[in-house]
Amino acid sequence: MSFKIDRAFVQEVAQRLVQIDSVNPSLAADGGGEREIAQYCAGVLESHGIAVDFSEPEPGRVSVIGTLSGSGNGKSLMFNAHIDTVGVSEMNDPFSGEMRDGKLWGRGTFDMKGSAASCIAAICALADADRKLNGDIVVTLVADEEYESIGMQDVLKTVRTDAAIVTEPTQLQICLAHKGFIWYEIDFQGRAAHGSRFDLGIDANMNAGRYLAAVHEYQQELQAKHQHPLLGPPSLHAAMIKGGSGISTYADQCQLHIERRTIPGETASAATADLQQLLTHLATADPDAKAELKTLCIRDPFEVDRNAEIVRCLAQSYQSRLQIEPAFVGDTPWMDAALLAAAGVETVVFGATGGGAHAREEWVELDSLQALAEVLAETASNYCH
Asked: What is the arithmetic mean of pLDDT over 31-50?
C-alpha cells in the first residue's frame, strides 16, 4: 500500500497541540482540560474524511475517537495517545510550541502530544492513500491519563479493536511491559494527652514510625526476591505522612500514604495482604497500635508476549521503514496500555524520542515524530490488509 507522511503536516499538528492548554484540571485547578484540544483534533481528522465521535465521561473531559473504516474482513488496529498534560506552574513559556535545534519545546511535547500528532498523521495518510485496507483503523486521543484515566475507561465501553499501539514516549523502542501501582492510606489512631502524661497518651505518630520501620525491611526483602527481566524489582515508598496537633500533645491520629509499584505476575490482593500483615504484627505486639489500611487506587502492570502478532508486525514495519533492528524494553511508569490489555486488546507501546516529561523543560525530537508516523502507518498497512 502506498502512502506518504507529510513532514510539515506532522510538525504543524504537533506544534498546534502544544499551543493548546490541556492541563488536567484534576491536577491543577486552572487547567484547560481537554475540550479545546479534542475539538482541534476532530477538525483535523474530519478534514481527511475520517469519522469522528466523542466521549465525555465528565463535563469538559473530552476524548476523540477517529475511525477509518476498512472494506471488511480485516483485523482492526488502534493508535492511542492521551491529550491531557500535567501542570505548568514552574515553566517559563509552556505553550510556546517553539521549534529549535530539531526539537519541539513546551508542555506535553514529549508526554505525549508529539506522539498524538504522529497518530493523527498516520491515520490521515492512510485515509489519503490509494486504496482502503480491509480492517478498521481507529485513533483514540483520550483525556485524563495523567490522573485516573477516566477517558480511556469510558472509550473502552464502546470501542474494541483486535490490537492497539499505545504511543507513550519510548525513544522509538518497542516497550513490552510496564509497572503497575497501588495507592494506600493508613490511619493510625492514638490518644491525645498532655506531653507530660505518658501514662495517658498514645502516640499515633510513633506507631506509624514503627510501622514504617517494618515496611522498610519488607521493601528490602521484596526487592531481593522478585525481579522482572525488563522492569527489575517491585518497590514501594512512603509518599506522605501527617499527624499530631501540637508539640506538647500526644498525636491522636497519623495518616500515612504509601505507593506500591508492582511488576507483572504480582497481584494487588497479595500486595495488600503483605502490608496488612505488617499492621497485624504491630497490633499483636502492642494492642494500643491501632490502624486501618485502605486501598485508594489500583492500576495493574502490563506485559505483552514478544511473539504476539502485533509485536511482530510492529517490529517488521520498524525494520522496513527505519532500516535498523528495534530494541525491546520495559518501562516503569504506568500507562493506559494496561487498561487496553485487560479489555482483551493485544497491545504494545511504541512512541517518540525526547525528554523532560513532567519537568520544567520538555521537548520532543521532530525527526522521531516523522519516524513514528511512518512506522505506525506501515504497521497498520501490514496488520489490517
From this structure: 97
Phi, psi of 238 (to 5 degrees): -85, 105
Domain count, the chain: 2
Whether residue 134 sits in one domain with residue 190: no
User: Under a CB-based contact definition with an 8 Å cutoff, are residues 261 and 236 in contact?
Assistant: yes
Choose the final residue of a domain: 268, 299, 330: 299
Write the DSSP symbol of residue 118.
H
User: Can you read off the three cell numbers belonging to residue 281?
Assistant: 504484627
Q: What is the pLDDT of residues 154-164, one digit of tens each?
A: 999 999 999 99
pTM above 0.70, yes or no: yes
Tell me what pLDDT residue 131 has. Answer: 83
DSSP code per residue over 347-364: EEEE---EE-TTSSS-EE
Residues 208 and 319 in one domain: no
pLDDT at position 1: 67
Distance CA 340, CA 301 (A): 12
Cα–Cα distance, 42 to 186 (Å, whole number): 44
Cα–chain center distance at 368:
20
Closest CA to 339 of 185, 174, 145, 203: 145
Task: List, for residues 324-371, the tens digit of each pLDDT value.
Answer: 999 999 999 999 999 999 999 999 999 999 999 999 999 999 999 999
CB 125 within 8 A of CB 377: yes
- Please report whether residue 328 resides in a domain: yes
Task: Assess if residue 1 is contained within a domain.
Answer: no
Last residue of a domain, one of 270, 299, 328: 299
Range of the structural domain that residue 196 is part of? 180-299
Residue in 226, 261, 258, 257 with CA at minimum distance from that of residue 333: 261
Three-state secondary-structure class, residue 183: strand
Given a cut of 90, is residue 2 above it in pLDDT?
Answer: no
What is the C-alpha to C-alpha distance for residues 154 and 63, in angstroms, rounded to an integer?
9
